[in-house]
Amino acid sequence: MFCKKGRRHVPGIRYSLIRIQGIAKDHAKWSPCTAVEFEYDPHNKMRHTTYWYEKDKKAEWPLSKNSHEEEPEREGESFDFIAEPNRFYMNVETDGSLTAKEVVLKV
C-alpha cells in the first residue's frame, strides 16, 4: 500500500471500503415520510394523557378531527382499567417517491 501524498509504502495497514445504501433506520434523510400523524383515543377515555389546563379543560384542549368518529365519555361513567385501543387514526405525508398507501403497507 502506498500513501498518495509522498508515494511511500506504509507497512501493516490494510483497509477496505464498504458503501451501504442508506435506510430510514440509519438516518431520517432516507425516509420517504415527511410527516406522520397518529391518534387512538380522541376523547382520552383511557387517560393515557394528562391535560394541563388553567380554567376549563374543554375550552383549552379542543377535540381533534377524529373525535366525531367515536362516542364521547359520559358524565358518571365508570373508568375501564383494562381498556385497549381498538381504533387507530393515521395520516401520512410523503415526499413523492412513494405513496402514503405504499409506506403504510410496506413491511
Q: In order across it, which strands form the biggest sheet?
A: 1-2
> How many individual β-strands?
2
Which series of helices and strands comes N to C?
EHEH
Going by helix content, strand content and strand pairing, the class is mainly beta
> Count the helices. How many?
2
State the separation between the terminal residues, measured CA to CA.
44 Å
Q: Name the poorly predicted regions.
A: none
Helix content bin: under 10%
For the largest beta-sheet, the strand count, sense and barrel status come to: 2 strands, antiparallel
Outline, from the CA principal axes?
elongated
* Whole-angstrom Rg: 26 Å
Portion in beta strands: 5-15%
Mean pLDDT figure = 81
